[in-house]
Amino acid sequence: MKFAERTLVQAAEQILVKLGESPDSAAIAASSLVQADMRGVSTHGINLLRLVDQRVRAGMLELPTRISSVSDDAATAMLDGNNGLGPVTAYRALDLALGKAREFGIGLVTLRNTNNIGALGCLTASAAARGAIAIIMTNGNPSVAPYGAAEPFFGTNPLSIGIPRRGNDPLVLDMSSSIVARGKIRLAALSGQGIPSGWALDEDGQPTDDPKRALKGCLLPLAGPKGSGLAMMIDILSGILSGSAYGRKLKSFHELEGATGVGAAFICVDIARFIGEDSFSSLIVEYTDQIKALRKQPGFDEILLPGELETKKAKDSMARGIEVPDAVASGIDEILARLGISVRLAGQER
């Protein structure tokens, strides 16, 4: 099914408000979820409303989201998400980091006690659209084995960097430190497909191509020791530095195990404090034009820049409608009906 952006945003907003979120925060979270679907990152899209609904009913998610300041000193700050909606706390932290970057040249904001903060690329793209460089990272529940280990300790611990390109789409790196996102394992398990060998270990620590056994085991880090080291540093900066949970102390957002304890770090840089916005913009365009013009390997039609696929997908979604799996749309309608909301996605396909 395909839907207009506004259709999905309105449905998500009404669900979140009915679950106890404030209208303003519901609008932020709904926009975050739908933007992820628009960019093709469905693991962080409106399907997460099902988990939000479950966690609120189980008393494991606090709505309305209340964000408190732990400290605020010059270019740095620490926020506590108090187990509220991750996207809401993330946008608040990003705005604070951007404001500090404008005032001091750089801003570093850490965030503790939150939940899944959404697709990081949406956040860094937003900062880049406002003319700032942004670096965002977050940790997650144990699902990745450190290099050489046979059991999980790290989360998929993603990192995103957004670079503005005046007059062009921003450069957006958005990657997990695992060899593959855990959501792809879940999708393979649901569809009954196998997974490539080298993605995961089973619960006995043996390589497996069975996604169901992989979900009972763990993922492998990206590029072996390099991804393992990256996951560790992200866990330290997002979890330990923020005073949040880390390593085995984190809990899954997908299971009713209690508060997740997710932490995150937001770094923003004011380009004007360095070589100047005009010079930087010209150099970035020249730089990326040179890369796009390079001789291509056989079989490659185009040299893609970081975030280019997601940006193309977002533009296509805007023009043709946002793709939502039938099962997800039906699940959203079930929540709408149970909460007594009259609107339905069924019949509003684009």
Give the SSE layout:
Layout: E1 2-3, H1 5-19, H2 23-38, H3 48-57, E2 68-73, E3 76-80, H4 86-104, E4 106-114, H5 120-129, E5 132-138, E6 159-163, E7 171-175, H6 182-191, E8 200-201, E9 207-208, H7 211-216, E10 218-219, H8 225-240, E11 262-270, H9 277-292, H10 308-320, E12 322-323, H11 326-338
Parallel strand pairs: 3-4
Antiparallel strand pairs: 1-12, 2-3, 4-11, 5-6, 5-11, 6-7, 8-9, 8-10
Helix pairs in contact: 1-2, 1-3, 2-4
Could you explain how this protein is built, in words?
This protein has 350 residues and is of the alpha+beta class. It is 41% helix and 16% strand. It has eleven helices and twelve strands. It has helices at residues 5-19, 23-38, 48-57, 86-104, 120-129, 182-191, 211-216, 225-240, 277-292, 308-320, 326-338; strands spanning 2-3, 68-73, 76-80, 106-114, 132-138, 159-163, 171-175, 200-201, 207-208, 218-219, 262-270, 322-323. The strands form three sheets. A seven-stranded mixed sheet has the order 2-3-4-11-5-6-7, sandwiched between helices. Strands 9-8-10 form a three-stranded antiparallel sheet.
Taking pLDDT < 50 over at least 5 consecutive residues as the criterion, the unreliable ranges are none
**Strand order, biggest sheet?**
2-3-4-11-5-6-7
- Helical region count? 11
Q: How many angstroms separate the termini?
A: 8 Å
Q: How confident is the prediction overall: mean pLDDT?
A: 96
Write down the secondary-structure element order.
EHHHEEHEHEEEHEEHEHEHHEH
Structural class: alpha+beta
Strand content: 15-25%
Shape: globular
Radius of gyration: 20 Å
Helicity level, as a percent range?
Answer: 40-55%
Total DSSP E strands: 12
- Tell me about the biggest sheet? 7 strands, mixed
